[in-house]
Fold this protein.
Amino acid sequence: QVQLVESGGGLVQAGGSLRLSCAASRTTFSINTMGWYRQAPGKQREMVAHIASGGSTNYADSVKGRFTISRDNAKNTVYLQMNSLKPEDTAVYYCYIVYLRKDYWGQGTQVTVSS
């Protein structure tokens, strides 16, 4: 069974930075899309960013210019570099992958941005 392990969340002041990581294990073949969603209290889960196997990226308008998604295919790991963080970025961040036409999700990591 594919497993995703996230790390890098925490508490940061507004304007600060955090880097999230998500490593996939028990994958034999290449991973297709990798990405991040987030869910704030009382809100629906929303897409933050995703990156295709070829490297093309897509971002939510709210994070463009501040967040950067990248991946290391050799390590089956996706990263989310978050700069200029705002209190409204506070949420649980979930990584996901599309592998062999199935979606897999991480357990989530809390990001809290204080004002």
